[in-house]
Structures
1.
Amino acid sequence: MRLGDYIDDHCSRCKRTTDHSIVAMAGEEVLKTRCRTCNSDHKYRHNKSRTREMTAKEAFDKVLASVTGGQPPEETKRSRKRK
């Protein structure tokens, strides 16, 4: 690792894991990073956030609930005509 290299870290301003540039190091240890999305500098957090990130299913369910007004979608049954 060198100064200017890219590294993933949790951004406190963006509130998510984003691409960062290394700004300060002590030996081989990364001390400070700069978010490449919002350009904020912060301590290197080893890509750990205070809250856990949502899984893909949790994110989908959250979006679906916001669209349907919080109610689960009704299952539609298709009837087949038999000959």
Note: The mean pLDDT is 82.
2.
Amino acid sequence: MKRHIILVGLPGSGKSTVGKEAADQLQATFLDIDAVISRKEGRPISILIAEKGEAAFRALEKHEVEAALEAPPAIIAPGGGWAAQPGALESVAGRAIILYLKTKPDKAVDRAAQDRGPGNRATLIGIGDDPATRMRELLKEREPFYLKADAQVETDRKTAAQVVVEVLKLARSMAGW
């Protein structure tokens, strides 16, 4: 039975880039949860959080992940903090496999700074004067949850295409694709 694939990891770990390409190759739907929320709310995630607060954003994120899980199997990329929310990982058990795209904080900062996608991740994660320090803090907070994933894919010394190949292998061997 085919199951959803949820990609977790720091902002800049490649969830959107890898997820989109893996979905294309699997002929599956790709859902970037930040993009879904941004489109429905009519504004970037950073502005949404500034206006409504992070708790309201996380509630929307949880709702959209649940809605995605009710649809046919897809590749799903929630925000970097989704996995650290109470009950998030447990709520997908049996319906999805979770893959941790493991990236060192410095590499994630470089990638996140180049991202101009929905929500402007540099703003979203609160990068200020010292983005590397902030990313290390995020990793310290979130990695205990990321490590509960069904599998890890190291991304630092690989191209996006190489990471996609690994994700495809795991999708086929663990999620019935």
Note: Strands lie at 4-8, 29-32, 74-77, 96-102, 151-154.
